[in-house]
Design goal:
By secondary structure, this protein is an alpha/beta fold. The protein folds into two domains: 4-32 and 43-54 and 300-373 and 389-393, Aspartate Aminotransferase, domain 1; 57-297, Type I PLP-dependent aspartate aminotransferase-like (Major domain) (Aspartate Aminotransferase, domain 2). The chain is 38% helix and 18% strand. It contains 13 helices and 15 strands. It has helices at residues 4-11, 44-47, 56-66, 79-90, 103-121, 140-145, 149-152, 170-176, 202-213, 282-297, 300-321, 344-353, 376-394; strands at residues 23-27, 30-33, 38-41, 96-100, 127-131, 162-165, 181-186, 216-220, 244-247, 258-262, 325-331, 334-339, 356-357, 359-362, 365-368. A seven-stranded mixed β-sheet has the order 4-10-9-8-7-5-6, with helices on both faces. Strands 1-2-3-13 form a four-stranded mixed β-sheet. Strand 2 (30-33) and strand 3 (38-41) form a beta hairpin. Helix 4 (79-90) packs parallel to helix 10 and helix 11 (300-321) packs parallel to helix 13. It binds pyridoxal-5'-phosphate. Pyridoxal-5'-phosphate is lined by residues 102-104, 107, 135-137, 187, 191-192, 220, 222-223, 248-249.
Amino acid sequence: MTDWQELESKYMMTTYKRLPVTFVRGQGSRLWDDAGQEYLDFFGGHVVVSLGHCHPEVVAALTEQAGTLMHYSNIVYTTPQIELARLLVENSCLDRAFFCNSGAEANEAAIKLARKWAKEHRDGAYEVICAENAFHGRTLATVTASGTERYKAPFTPLPIGFVHVPFNDAEAIRRATTEAACAVLLEPIQGEGGIVVPDDDYLRQVRAWCDKQNLLLILDEVQTGIGRTGALFAYQHYGIEPDIITLAKGLGSGFPIGAVLAKEHCAVFVPGDHGTTYGGNPLATRVAHTVVKYIVDNDLSAQVAAKGNRLGRKLLQFEDRFDFVKAVRGKGLLWAVEFNQEMAEEVTLACLKERLVVNNVRPNTLRLSPALIISEEELDEGLAKLDKVFAMLSA
Ligand SMILES: *Cc1c(COP(=O)(O)O)cnc(C)c1O
């Protein structure tokens, strides 16, 4: 049998620390490795496969579009991107869409949009107020906007124009606001930071401040968007309307795509300002249209909310039962189990042995993000495996 892990170490850049498993096939919430072993997926390849692996409607749309028109550039009109834009706009508070290929690119575009808007509406202000512990991507601008110093240090000098304040502290944003500020950029729930859920009135306070100061509120919904938290977009939980949101991950359920949605008043790009060769191509946007339409038509968000409540209730029991479980938090199907020690990698590897895929999002925090279509039986099956691993580790 081919030793893929050996070949990887020979031929690929050493960019990733990988789990010792090679997946070759997926179906729904199940995965199979190169030895034919079956796994239950509670991670979704970084919170991406919203409809599970190889969802039949997604596969049908992808193969049909692949045989019809895979790509043409944005120098002409193509139809799937217009249909996707309409679907996203009609189901959100935003008015216009721009498509790209990833979350980082979506945030990069949102930052450029905010800067251009500020040239016209805020006297050339350019500074973006971001949160500590945030994650917005790995391009130079988005890694600068992120709150993790370790990701930035090797790549200095970094672009200017980003300041950081503690998350879930609206007063800190007020204090950090100067003439130079043009926007506030936040994840509604911090994902890579360890599923940090803010207080219920945080975003309302931030929105009020942005209104008062003429700042744009940009929400990075790359991880929280498209049904993940039990609403189509996480901002909908908090009774506010952002000026701009960014999407990726769950939008394509495995096919690479990113999007920026903006209100009319700040959708200020004109021809030549921004662009991408692949962004919005027929294949990617046809797939994403199928994903979003499936979620909307089947009201998957409501199902996610119900499944999430149930999952959360059961996870909370671990808090009482195991000394090393410090806190459980989350929303919808995006949950974290925080430990009182750095044992998340050990738990992840032990779960893998039990054929359950989870993610050590932080050294002391486990992330659970199963597909939106996961069944209650599969949720219980995963919880039983996690229970077994925790019991083993506490013995
Ligand atoms: C994953 C993620 C990104 C980056 O997306 P890429 O597609 O990896 O560029 C940005 N923001 C948030 C909140 C994310 O979770």
